[in-house]
Design a protein that fits this description.
With 171 residues, this protein is an alpha+beta fold. The protein has 4 helices and 8 strands, in the order E-E-H-H-E-E-E-H-E-H-E-E. It has an 8-stranded mixed β-sheet with strand order 1-2-3-4-5-6-8-7, with helices on both faces. Helix 3 packs across helix 4. The chain is globular, with a radius of gyration of 15 Å.
Length: 171
């Protein structure tokens, strides 16, 4: 479950999702250093200093009192290293979360993205504060589509900024 004060940790069978801290920037800069991670999202890798600045803004939270920025780094329990991150922008009044996930190139192909996304969705829906989960995925990004589907999201016919909206409505 998450709180108004920020995200709470959660775990999956192989991963610990830990609330983002500025101190994670050095290790995450290495995890996210591959330019290929930006093929579908644009941009370029950020160095540790830029990530520290970004993480400071993210951990400070949204200036909108009706919106929460929840971010977690993913630590692989087997070796203690960070593998990537998951995030949710939560519209408190609409009980809706927009989610995203990124797994560093060196950790891809092990099912971590599917495990992390499914864990994030379950974590967000626990307690009922979030009723709708949405992800926006580039139409050519088959791997992210597979991750979304494994987490229970369904492709819609809705588009936003060139990406397809995937959605899960809690029952």
């Amino acid at each position: 479950m998450t709180t108004n004060n920020g995200p709470t940790p959660f775990s999956t069978p192989r991963l610990d999702a830990l609330p983002l801290r500025v101190a994670h920037a050095d290790e995450m800069a290495a995890v996210l250093a591959d330019p290929a991670l930006h093929t579908f999202t644009g941009g370029a890798p950020q160095d540790a200093e830029a990530l520290r600045s970004r993480y400071a803004r993210q951990t400070a939270g949204s200036p909108d009192p009706a919106e929460r920025w929840w971010n977690w780094v993913l630590r692989v329990r087997g070796d203690g290293r960070l593998a990537g991150y998951v995030q949710a922008t939560v519209d408190v009044t609409g009980a809706r979360a927009e989610i995203a996930w990124v797994i560093g190139t060196g950790c891809q192909g092990r099912g971590y993205a599917k495990e992390a996304a499914a864990g994030l969705v379950a974590h967000l829906l626990d307690g009922g504060a979030v009723r709708t989960v949405v992800a926006h995925i580039h139409p050519d990004h088959a791997a992210s589509e597979a991750v979304a589907a494994s987490a229970g999201l369904v492709r819609t016919e809705e588009w936003e900024d060139g990406e397809v909206r995937w959605r899960l409505e809690a029952r």
